[in-house]
Structures are given as C-alpha cells and as structure tokens.
Specification:
The protein has a six-stranded mixed sheet. The relative contact order is 0.19. It has three helices and six strands.
C-alpha cells in the first residue's frame, strides 16, 4: 500500500478500532503497527504536557498511554485531507476533556505527515493554541 490516502485512511481506521477495543494499556498496538515505520518519529510541541519527540512503535505506545493519562476523553471529529503525497497534511477537529481540570476544549490539529515506502515515517502536529491546552491539563 503506497497510496497516501490509503495509508492515512487505513491508519485512522486502525486507530479508531484500537481505541474502541480499550486503547492504551488494554488493546494491542498490533493493528496500528503496519501503518508506521519502525523508526517513526512523532514530534509534539514542547509546551504541551505530552510534548517532546516519541520514537518508534514503543514510543507511540508510550505516547498513547500518556495521552490517556492526561485526557479523560479525546474525540476525533471531522478530518480533511488538505494535501496528499510524500508529505500529507490533515486537518482534524478534536473535542477533549482534561482529567486534571475537567475542562472541555474543542480545537483543530493540523498534521504534516511524511510517508515513506507506504508507511508513516514522521508526524508533526500543529495546535492552534498550545497554551490553552497546557492550561486545561494542569492540576
């Protein structure tokens, strides 16, 4: 599978199934693994409570665990593929509730996703307001 739309649609479907099956700590990461390169890198803004670089499949699993620790709910809404290619751009609407404060937020995430050899090699999410997200997550 080398078509960027197929890779992304497959990954988002596998991600939805992963969370429906219990998500981090409960469900197996195996259905998601084929969509990510072994050395994938997820870059999160340093100002976020889940900031930093997450490396490889183990790093993604740790990232999902950290997200489940921080967010009580994290719902993926409408997604729009703005560009499809070796670097694809996806705009995603999110609704989330922080565990620490109970605060609910709605925000967009714009992701630049690099695809190599039919697998996601790098993800760079951009948040509209990282300060508001960090504040909502502070206890």
């Amino acid at each position: 599978m080398t078509d960027p739309a197929a890779v992304l649609n497959g990954m988002y479907q596998a991600e939805a199934e992963y969370f429906a099956a219990g998500g981090p700590g409960s469900a197996s990461f195996a259905p998601l693994a084929p969509y990510f390169a072994e050395d994938v890198v997820l870059h999160q803004a340093d100002g976020l409570p889940f900031g930093g670089d997450w490396h490889g499949h183990a790093g993604l699993e740790k990232f999902f665990l950290e997200m489940s620790r921080i967010w009580e709910t994290f719902e993926i809404g409408e997604q729009e593929f703005l560009a499809l290619g070796a670097t694809s751009v996806v705009l995603t609407q999110v609704r989330a509730r922080a565990r620490a404060t109970g605060q609910e937020l709605e925000f967009p995430i714009l992701q630049a996703i690099r695809i190599e050899d039919g697998r996601i090699a790098e993800v760079r999410p951009f948040y509209w307001d990282t300060a508001a997200i960090a504040e909502a997550c502070r206890s």
